[in-house]
Design brief:
This protein is an alpha+beta fold. Helices cover 25% and strands 23% of the residues. It starts with a helix and ends with a strand.
């Protein structure tokens, strides 16, 4: 996961913040597990927490210990997505976000993409290449589906939730 790697890297977020899933024990900044535990328990959504973290990264408090510009652009989005996912979440990270497989094949013609989401966080399935398409972003128990007319070639399928593709939630579809 790019967000976790950036968060826990030397001289970055985890140097100052505690976040159990990232195995960081910083004491300068807030403990992010404690900071978001009540919010999550009260139903504040992951996207809201992600937005708050992204805002803090972009605009740290004047006179505070957090340096501005520590991570920027897509890296900041990846860190925010990871913190929103990991804060106050019990258990251990099992590695990068991933689909059940990162390689698939299909015959040319109409192809139906079906991705059941058994994860506690939102996901979808999307396609890029000579033809594009995307199913809806769905929560746990939802089904992301779409249909595309594909010609022979190579396509990439991926999750459109910010930070997920960068974290490894992608694969290659070969159409023959």
């Amino acid at each position: 996961m790019n967000g976790k790697r950036l968060f826990a890297g030397k001289g970055t977020c985890g140097s100052c913040h505690t976040l159990a899933r990232a195995n960081t024990k910083g004491t300068v900044g807030p403990n992010l597990d404690a900071a978001f535990a009540t919010d999550k328990r009260d139903g504040l959504g992951q996207s809201s927490i992600e937005g708050l973290v992204l805002d803090q990264i972009a605009y740290p408090r004047n006179g505070g210990a957090m340096p501005g510009g520590l991570v920027k652009g897509q890296n900041a989005k990846d860190v925010a997505a990871y913190v929103a996912y990991a804060a106050a979440r019990a258990g251990q990270d099992t590695g990068a976000l991933a689909y059940v497989t990162d390689k698939a094949s299909a015959k040319a013609g109409t192809v139906k993409f079906v991705m059941p989401n058994k994860s506690p966080i939102q996901h979808n399935i999307a396609l890029k290449g000579p033809v594009t398409g995307a199913g809806p972003i769905v929560g746990s128990g939802g089904m992301s589906t779409f249909t595309a007319n594909l010609k022979p070639g190579t396509y990439e399928f991926y999750c459109q939730v910010p930070g997920h593709e960068a974290a490894g939630m992608k694969g290659t579809l070969t159409v023959k």
